[in-house]
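Deliverable D4.2, example record:
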Amino acid sequence: MNLAGLFWLQSGASTLGSAADNTIVLPHKAAPRVGELQVSEAGVVMVAEPGVDVRFDGIPVRSILMSDDTTEYPVKITHGALGWSVIKRADRFALRLRDFEHPAIETFPALEYYPVNRKLRVSARFEQYPEPKLLNVDTVIEGLGWQPESPGVVVFEIDGQDFKLEAYASGNELFFVFGDQTSGRETYPAGRFLYADRPADGTDTILDFNRAYNPPCAFNDFATCPVASPQNRLATRIEAGEKFDPAVHHTPGI
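Output generated by the structure prediction step:
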């Protein structure tokens, strides 16, 4: 709930600070000019304004290469109650801003869930592709795709019906973005997230839909979540996991 901004970066230099003449205008709690971001194909370098307190891992820095979120060790900068990092989506960089004193942290209501449904904790057979597939998946941001690798699909049964979900690679786990016939009514319109252990080819894993949860974009405008692809929209009601309340959550323009 502390996401406070998402700024797509252009090649060259961009200034950031609370003053209105900056390329990236930060909340008033920031210094008028915090520094400059230097963007190139090689990445993003943060150069702090002299005398401005900018820190990495609690240590003041003057200049730092901001490794993005696709790397093993992404750099997270803090400046007072604000923090930011660089994300990379396709070939584009963006600055993701956090406000650790964001009012929503205190005011956000409790999440709603369906009652636990043991019938929706199902055994699913993993069918691995001969070679992983590189996919192109839409996101909540128009024109911005996500290119995950899919190792295969899982096949399972609910109430006597056969279903299939395409999995996305996530280390020792399988990651799913799925929709169903509750999507846009009782659950998030763009789909929900779910993880499962990755088994060997032809063996079973457990899909526990009671663990399905809303993506970050359900809560604000500053996330870049993938949406459920057409093949991952199930023709049944998954009455398990996290619910969606338009009065509380953010509804994407999709």
